[in-house]
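Can you please make up a whole protein chain along with its backbone structure tokens because I've never seen that pairing?
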Amino acid sequence: MKFRRVFNRAAFGLLSMTAVLFSTPERALAAELRAVASFSILGDLVRQVGGSRVMVETLIGPDADVHAFSPTPADAGKLADAQIVVINGLGLEGWIERLVKASKTRAPVVVATAGVTTIADADDHAGHGHDHGSAIDPHAWQNVANVKIYVDNIRVGLARAAPEDAAYFADNAARYTAALDALDRDVRAAIEALPPERRKVITTHNAFGYFAKAYGMAFIAPQGVSSDTEPSARQVGAIIRQIRRENVPAVFLENMSDSRLIARIAKEGGAKIGGTVFSDALSPADGPAATYTAMMRHNVREFVDALAPPR
């Protein structure tokens, strides 16, 4: 298939680029800076910039739902031992202020989304928003261009926490940013190769607003931006009617979601069930989305495979 061949060739090029990020000899020392990131995607970005000079822990691991997270005393202990804490912000971690206070940590808290141009949470009015006091969609990492801002904020935070390693962090950030530029070009090329009328999908919850705006796709979700609420029968019925009315080609599961709802919607709406995509969490290390760049490439391959016109 033309779309798949183009994207796979591009993916090979990026893998070659990212493979050299930490392939050069490093000074022989143990990780000095203890960092805690709020969830798995953010943890990967901190590792990319921090390299061997930073030991990274995450509060919310792979395949875990950030919206359903409830901190424990052990999480407070992680923050107490941290030298830097990195969060997404935009209300994603509505519990973070309470956890920081409970932990008594003195670590600086870096907000990775500082400076990102936000978009509205389209479902906030329906009671699906986050604990942030405003109608902002927090899933900004779904636009690769935003992740370049994340990376620079992380670089600045790490350099302030460990000034002696500032040049090292800057080099890592520059190389990773180049990889993100290539990823952004490849995602655009893959989506643009699809006919505009087929760039419509159903996902388990509305986490792809930034992707939709940046890359020209339409996402319909039976749940709001937060995945910790269940849609009503009326909402499900509306989605099924919309699939039929707009000829939506495919529906997709997410890695931390219940498959039964989306399977029902696909069956009754007559849409194809696509593969599993990753929105708020990476896969485990042996999975197809163990890093941010791998996650984005996996998702786009799944979209392209399901949405490409039948031959």
